[in-house]
Amino acid sequence: MAEPGSDVVVVGAGIIGAACAFFGARAGLSITVLDRGSVGGGTTSRCEGNILVSDKGPGPELDLALASRSLWLDLAAEHGAERYELEEKGGLVVATSEAGLSSLRSFAAGQGTGGVIAEPVASERLRDHEPNLAAGLPGGAFYPQDMQVQPVLAAASLLAAARDLGARVVTGEEVTGALRGADGRITAVRTARTTYPTAAVVNAAGTWGAVVGERLGGTVPVLPRRGFILVTEPLPRVVRHKVYSADYVDNVASGDAGLETSAVVEGTRGGTVLIGASRERVGFDETLSVEVLRRLAAQAVRLFPFLAQVRLMRSYRGFRPYCPDHLPVIGSDRRVPGLLHACGHEGAGIGLAPATGRLVADLLTGAPPQLDPAAFDPMRFVLEDA
Amino acid sequence: MGTSRSDRVHDVVVVGAGPAGLAAAGRAAALGADVALVDGAAVPGGQYWRQPADDALAGSVASLHHGLARYRRLVERVRGIEAAGGWFPRHQVWTVTREEGTFVVLAITGTGAEEREVGIRGRRLVLAPGAYDRQVPFPGWDLPGVMTAGGVQALLKGHAVTAGRRVVVAGTGPFLLPVAAGLAESGATVAGVHEAASPLAWGRHIGAVVRNVAKLGEGAGYVRTLARHRVPVRTRSVVVAAHGEQVLERLTVARLAADGSVLPGSRTTVAADVLAVGWGFTPQLELPMALGCATRVDVDGSLVCTVDDQQRSSVEGVFVAGEACGIGGADLAVVEGEIAGAAAAGTPLTDRRLLRRRLALRRFAAAMHAAHPVPTGWIDRLTEDTVVCRCEEVTVGRLRSALPLGADDARSAKLLARPGMGWCQGRVCGYAVSCVMSAWTGVPPSPVSIAARSVASPLRLGTVAATEDPSSAAES
Amino acid sequence: MTEQSFTFDGRPVAFRSGQSLGAALTAAGVRSWRTTRADGRPRGLFCGIGVCFDCLLVVDGRPNERACLQPAAAGMQVESQEGTGHGHLEV
C-alpha cells in the first residue's frame, strides 16, 4: 500500500525541513514531511535558537545569514513574533584580552563590508549594555542584528504554517530508501511501513544527513560535532543580549578535532540562562563530559560573576552537522535525479533556515534563485574526489 | 566553594543508604571489600527507615518504625565502614563519571559558601537510589496543604512533626495505611483513608499473598490501629478536588465505578488542612541512566533498571538494587542489596534461599501493582486550568495548545509547552504528562524519552567550575 | 529536649535539634512560604523529601534552599521567597 503522492517529500521535521516545507508549500508545491521522531526533536531541540550574523565574516554563509535574517523578520511580521518567540535582542561580543580586542576590531571592520552592523563598545561602556558583566573587561562590539527564536517552537510553527498551505507532516516515520524509475529518477520514498510516491526528495536530516543521503542513493559528508549547553535555574532577565567571548568565532571556524570551548551566555523567555559553547569531534558519543561542564561553567562565571551562586539545573548535548568546509550543502544531487540536499548547517541551522528553505523552493520550481547557490553545491565534495 | 578529591579507590561505592544500600554496603564490607557508602541524609535509613538527625528526636519517633531491630542490625554492620572513613552522609550525588578505569561519584556537601564537591572513587558501583511518591494532578492539588504521602511520613518519622491537625490520606497502595496509622498514633485527626482500589483486588493474587504472610500481618496491624482511632477507611474512593483560597481547606471525595469514573451522586465534601496523597512510587533513575544502564517499563508503568540475577546492570561494574529495579518495598530492597553487595565485592552469593526469597517478593510486588493500579478516570477529571507541571505552572490548557503544533508525546510536549523544564526536571509531572499525551494522541507512553536527567541534583555553577584546571581553560 | 529558634520573616520560630526548616515551620502552623514566579500562587511543602523544589525559601540571604532538606539552626534568618528569589539581579 502506498500513501497519496506529492510533489516533494522532505525528510526531517527539524528547522531546515520545516523551512523547506513552508517555502515549498508557499510556492505551490504539494509537500509531505517525514521524520523518524517528533517535530523538532533532533538538533533543533538541542540548540539555543540563535539567528546570528556577528560570528560570520564576509562570504557566502554571511550572505545566506543576512537573507535569512530578513526572512525571519518577514515571517514574524506575517505570523506574529510570538509564534516563534522571536526576539531582536542583539549580540554583545566581549574581548577577554587586549590582543583579543584588537583582532575583534579588525574582524568587525571586515564584517562591515559584508553588511554586518558592528558598534565598537569601550571597556567602560560594556556594563551599559550588560549591567551584570564582570568589571575590567577590555572592550567589545555590539551587533544589533543578532536575534533569537525558541527553536522547537519555531520549527513547529513553520510546519503548522506549511500544513495550513496543504503540506502533510508524518512523524514516527523513518525513511529507509528510495524507488527510482528506468531513467534513474526518484519515483517514491520508502519507509519501514509504506511508500510515498513523489517527484523529488529533500534530504533535510541535519546531523543524520549522511545516513539519509546514503539511503536515498547520494551521500554527503556531514559529520557530528558535539556540543554541551548548561541550563541554569529560572532567573529574572539577568542577561539582555547574546553575550559571548571573542574567541568563539575562532572556535567555530576551527578545523581542530579536539575540545574547544568559549563562553556564550544568554537568557531565555523561560527564565533559564543558557551557557555554551563547546565543540568536539567524538562521533555520536552521548556520554556526559564533566570536564566540558567545568570549563563552560568557569568561563561563564568569568564573564558574569553572579553566575557562581546560580545553580546548574541541567545540561544537554547536541550534535551539530558539519561539512569539511563548514558550509552547508544546499542543492541538487546530480547523481540521483530528483534528490536535493539541505543539511550540514553546523551550529547555524536556525539562523540559516528560511533562506535555505526559499532556495530549495526556487530550485524545486525552477524559479531563478534569489541567492547564488554555487558555494553550497553538494557536488563540490564529489567533484574533488573524482 | 571548592572541591576535594581523594586518591583512595574503594573496591565498592554504594550510593544510597536506604534498605537496599545499607544491605549492599554491609554485605560487601563483611566480605572484606573496602566500601564507601554515600547518602544525602545525615543518618542512614532512606525513606523507609527515615531517621531524625538528632538522638533525642529519634527517641520520640521510634515507635512509628516497622522492623527497627532489623534496621539496627543493618546499621551495626556498616559501623566498620564509618570507622574506615567510608561513610559520606549529607552528600548529594549530582553525577557519576569515569576516570582511568574507575567510577567517580561526584557529590555536593555543605550549603551556601560552604558548598563543595567531593569525588569518591570506586572500582565497582552499587546504585540504590530509591524512589519517591508518584503523583497525578487534580484540580487544586497545587494548594499548600496537599502533600505527598511520603512527605507526610517523612515529617513524622524524620522530624516528629504531624503535617496537619485534620488529615485525609488518599491514593492507592499499601503505603497509605502506615501513613494514616502513624498520624493517628501521633495525635492528628485522620478524617479518612480513601483507597482507590477495590477491596477484592488482592483476591485474584492469593498465591503471591500467602507466600508473604508476614506482610499481610503488618497491614492488619495498621488496620487495627486505624479502627482503634475510629478512622474511616473507604475503598474505591478518591479525592477529586482540593479547595481553599491560599491553603487547603476542603476536599471533594467521590466513589469510583469499576471503570475508574466517578459514581454519579457520590461526591461529598470533607474539611481538611492536609491531604497526604500517593499513587505508588517512581524510581530515581538519574544515575543508572547517566551511566547508560539499560531500562525497561515495569508492570506499574514505571521505568526501571534491567538487572540480572546478581543485580548486575547492563554496564560492566555497575550493580543496581532496590526500588530502581522495580517498586517492591523494603524487604525486597534488602534482599536485592545483599545480593548486589556480595556480587560487587566479587563473591556472588550461592545461597539459593535468598534468590528464591527475591522471586517470591517480586511476585508479591507484581500482585500489589495489579491490585493497586492508578484508575484511569483522573485524566477526565482535569479542568483546563488544572496545573500539570507545578514548577513551570503549565496548565492542561497550555499543554493542549502544543497539540496543533505537532506535540505527540511527553518529550515533544515538554519542548513546546515546558512541562518538566523546571526545578524538578519533570520528576513530579513526568508520569502524568506521559499519560495525558498518550490519552490525547493514542501514541503509547515512552517513559524513557523523558527520564534522562544529566544533573541529578542542582549545584552552584561556582562549584562546578571550582575543580576546573585553569591552565586547560585559558582563553585565547 | 533542646528548644532553639530561628527567625522567619522576622519572627522567631522554635525548633528541635535535627528538624528541617520545613518541619519547624509546619509545627509552627506555617503552611506556605513561597509564591510562584508566573502566577504568584502560594506554595509550601509538597514532596517533603527534596524532589519537587516547591518548598524553596531564602536562608541567610541565599534563595532557593529546600526547606524540607535544610536543617534548622539557631539564629538562622529565614525568609519567604517571591518568584525566582533573584529579583535583585534583574536588568
Automatic annotation (TrEMBL), chain A:
Pfam families: DAO. GO terms for molecular function: oxidoreductase activity. Keywords: Oxidoreductase. GO terms for cellular component: cytoplasm. The lineage of its organism: Bacteria, Bacillati, Actinomycetota, Actinomycetes, Geodermatophilales. Residues 7-363 form the FAD dependent oxidoreductase domain. InterPro entries: FAD-dep_OxRdtase, FAD/NAD-bd_sf. This is Glycine/D-amino acid oxidase. The keyword Oxidoreductase applies. Gene3D superfamilies: D-Amino Acid Oxidase, subunit A, domain 2, FAD/NAD(P)-binding domain.
From TrEMBL, chain B:
SUPFAM superfamilies: FAD/NAD(P)-binding domain. InterPro entries: BFD-like_2Fe2S-bd_dom_sf, FAD/NAD-bd_sf, FAD/NAD-binding_dom, Metab_Enz_Cyan_OpOx_G3PDH, Opine_Oxase_asu/HCN_bsu. The keyword Oxidoreductase applies. It comes from the Bacteria. Gene3D superfamilies: BFD-like [2Fe-2S]-binding domain, FAD/NAD(P)-binding domain. One of its GO terms (molecular function) is oxidoreductase activity. Pfam families: Pyr_redox_2. Residues 10-333 form the FAD/NAD(P)-binding domain. This is Thioredoxin reductase. It comes from Blastococcus mobilis. Keywords: Oxidoreductase.
UniProtKB/TrEMBL annotation, chain C:
The keyword Oxidoreductase applies. Keywords: Oxidoreductase. InterPro entries: 2Fe-2S-bd_N (IPR042204), 2Fe-2S_ferredoxin-like_sf (IPR036010). One of its GO terms (molecular function) is iron-sulfur cluster binding. It holds the Pfam family Fer2_4. It comes from the Bacteria. The keyword Oxidoreductase applies. This is 2Fe-2S iron-sulfur cluster binding domain-containing protein. The lineage of its organism: Bacteria, Bacillati, Actinomycetota, Actinomycetes, Geodermatophilales.
